[in-house]
Structures are given as C-alpha cells and as structure tokens.
Amino acid sequence: MKLLWAAALASIFSALSLAPSPGDAAALAPKPLYRDPVYDGAADVSLIYDRGRHRWVMFYTNRRATLRLPDPEDVAWVHGTPIGVATSPDGLRWTYAGVADIPSHCTGPTLWAPELYYERGTYHMWLTVVPTVDHRWGGDNEASIIHLKSPDLRRWSCSDTVASGSKRVIDASVMRLGKDRYRLWYKDERAGSRIFALDSTDLVHWKKVLPDPVTNTSAEGPKVFRFKGWYWLIADAWKGLVVLRSKDAAEWVEQPMRILEAPGVNRSDTAKGQHPDVVVNDGHAFIYYFVHQESEPEAGRDPYWHQRTVIQVARLKYAKGWLSLDRNETVRMPLKAP
C-alpha cells in the first residue's frame, strides 16, 4: 500500500513539475488567438500600439458569421460588416472591446480590411468601403479606400478618399519609405485582382509612380514591412500566402514557396491562413492571420460553421534569404511597447 501511495504521489509531483506555472501560461498564445464573441467572424486584422493607454489594439473585419441565410450562396453575411476592436497588454491575450466608431457619412454599410498607421501624434486608418450589402460575389458594385484620422484610436474623423483611378479597390497597406515619402499598396479588382502601389508625400494626395502591378500573381490583403534588411510583401493568394522581397520596395521577387498553405494540426488552425498583418517587434516578426473553420469537427454537424473565422499568430523565421514559419509552434514572445 505504501508503495502504491508513493508511486501515486511521485506521479502527481511529476505532472505538477511539467505543468506550466500561471505565469508561463499567461505568456503562451492560445489556439485560436482570438474569436469575436458576437459574430465569430474576425478577419483581416491590423494591429497598432495605443500610446495613450499603453496597450495593443486589434482592428478587424467583423464578419457576421453566425447569420443563417436561407440561400447557401448568399454572401450578405460577409457584407454589412462593422469593424471589431480587441485590446491586449502583450499581443497574446486579447479582450473584445466592441466596434470602432466609424462615421457613416463618409463610409457605408460594409467595412473591410482596416489598415492602421501612427505618425506625429495622429492615428490613421485606411478602410475598404463597399456602399452596398451584396448577396453574390462578382458583381459590378464599386469599392473604395477611405482615409480616417484619430487622436486616440476611438474618435475617428473623415479625411479623404484614396484616388487610385479605379472604381473597385480594396485592402490598403501603408508604409513610410523615407522622409515625407509614403507608399500605399492595394488590390485592384478591375485589373485582374493584382496588387498595385501609390505614392504620397502627405498621406492624403496619392499618385501612381509605379504603373505596373507588384506581381502578376493575383492576390489580396497585401501587407508590407521591413525585416532582416529587406522589404517584404505578403498577400493572400487564396491557396496560402505569397511572399515577395525587395531591396527598394519597387522591384519585387516572389518567394518560390507560399506560407500557411498546408493546414496546421492544432484545433481551429486546420485550414489555409488568410489576409495577414505582420508586426515586427524587438527583432522578431509575428504574422497574424485568419482561418476559416470548415475543417473543424463542428462543421460536420453545422452546415453554417464554415462561415466562422478565427485569428491565429505565428512567428516568421528568416533563413537563406526567405521567410518560413511553423504554424504548429506555440508563440511565447509577448509584444513590447514600440
């Protein structure tokens, strides 16, 4: 009997020694990283650090994934979407914070793909706006990119509409390239769904300095960032994410292999990764992407489950001139204040 008790106690102490402490558990990114508690359709995230409240803020397309429309081909649930907001002290633990207060007089009923940027005391948001609630893909409706400004990430005011020369543009990504020189990348759905770029000196007036698309690969949701001495552009090609690198943010070379194409093994991460944001922080690069839930066990019982999307995070790794990641690896590194 004493031997049995000793063995049992040894087993318990062994388990306790292997289990993470509360502090360790708080420093691990969960799978999924984030679910929207209202519609369960978080997608197209953009992260930014709130300098006034000392926290990270995630803005995202708040797809109405819990809608059960009678027509299975009806895509109204991906329209009529607000912009959701979540906050975090470290980029690992996220709390729902409602929806962004976006002025309606310069936008519309369908809001997609926010892009956040901070400079000189002002927060900027470039927002894709569709003026309708569509029921089918592939229509002739217009879409535009609207520029908003805020002093605090809560109160937003209308600034301008990005003049691209096309009437169906979505998914902005903005980066500063030098003193008073900025570039905005976007998808033009009237030009083969390719990625183009505009330049500006004031974040308001834009012109097409580079007339050709970044790549002949069709994609959406471009994200441009600087890492390991290169400019990188990652975009959603609907079969994994394409990765391009450049020395000057003008001439791009496409990486031979896509990332987040193969499914992960962890629950809620078993489909391709889509429409990313990338945060370069303390020498590391973290990619935040969304994943549809059609491959999860619940989808076998619920024909609407495929509409749901969740946010995941992985760490990008640089080797031999290219980027890779292990989506099955747990992210343990919290984001630091910039």
If helices are DSSP runs of H or I spanning 4 or more residues, what is the number of helices? Answer: 2
Look at the structure and name the CATH superfamily.
Glycosyl hydrolase domain, family 43
Oligomer designation? single chain
Q: Widest sheet: strand order?
A: 1-2-3-4
Helix content: under 10%
Total number of domains: 1
The description of the largest β-sheet is:
4 strands, antiparallel
Low-pLDDT segments: 1-25
The geometry reads as globular
Question: At the first level of CATH, what is the class?
Answer: Mainly Beta
- The second-level CATH architecture is 5 Propeller
If you had to describe this structure to a student in words, what would you say it looks like?
With 338 residues, the chain is mainly beta. The chain has one domain: Tachylectin-2, Chain A (5 Propeller). Helix content is 7%, strand content 41%. It contains two helices and 20 strands. It has helices at residues 2-18, 22-26; strands at 42-50, 55-62, 83-88, 95-99, 110-119, 122-130, 144-150, 157-161, 169-178, 181-188, 194-200, 206-207, 220-227, 230-236, 241-246, 253-254, 274-281, 284-292, 309-319, 322-324. The strands form five sheets. It has a four-stranded antiparallel sheet with strand order 1-2-3-4, with no helix packed on it. The longest helix is centred in the first third of the chain and has 17 residues, at 2-18.
